[in-house]
């Protein structure tokens, strides 16, 4: 694999991992909110969001990434390394997508229950 492609993939991977570290709980406007009801709603919405299974997305993304990497490696001449990088990138990207989906499900659930989600 040439140096430019390798450094580009490494940079993309590092950016993706950095994005994963940025996961935060949503900010809710608590003005006029009953804290007991809020705690129950939070737990229920969190349970719904956990239905988005991150591990399955990571496994699927890794498999697809490895296949694409292997194809690119067959052209470039380094199948093993390209497949490994493809698997790493595909798994990371899919994990980030699933995490983002979890966050969206949680925020939609809380908004649907009448809370003002600020972020």
Helix and strand layout, with pairings?
Blueprint: H1 3-21, H2 35-49, H3 54-76, H4 79-112
Order of helices and strands: HHHH
Q: How confident overall, as mean pLDDT?
A: 76
Shape, per Cα inertia axes = rod-shaped
Topology, number of strands: 0
Distance between the termini: 41 Å
By secondary-structure content and strand pairing, the structural class works out as mainly alpha
Overall domain count? 1
Return residue spans where pLDDT drops below 50 for at least 5 consecutive residues: none
Main sheet, how many strands, which sense, barrel?
Answer: none
Count of helix runs: 4
Share of residues in helices: over 70%
Tell me the strand percentage band: under 5%
Rg (CA only): 19 Å
Descriptive notes:
This protein has one domain. It has four helices and no strands. It is mostly helical and 119 residues long. Helices cover 76% and strands 0% of the residues. Helix 1 runs parallel beside helix 4, helix 2 packs antiparallel against helix 4 and helix 3 runs antiparallel to helix 4. The mean pLDDT is 76.
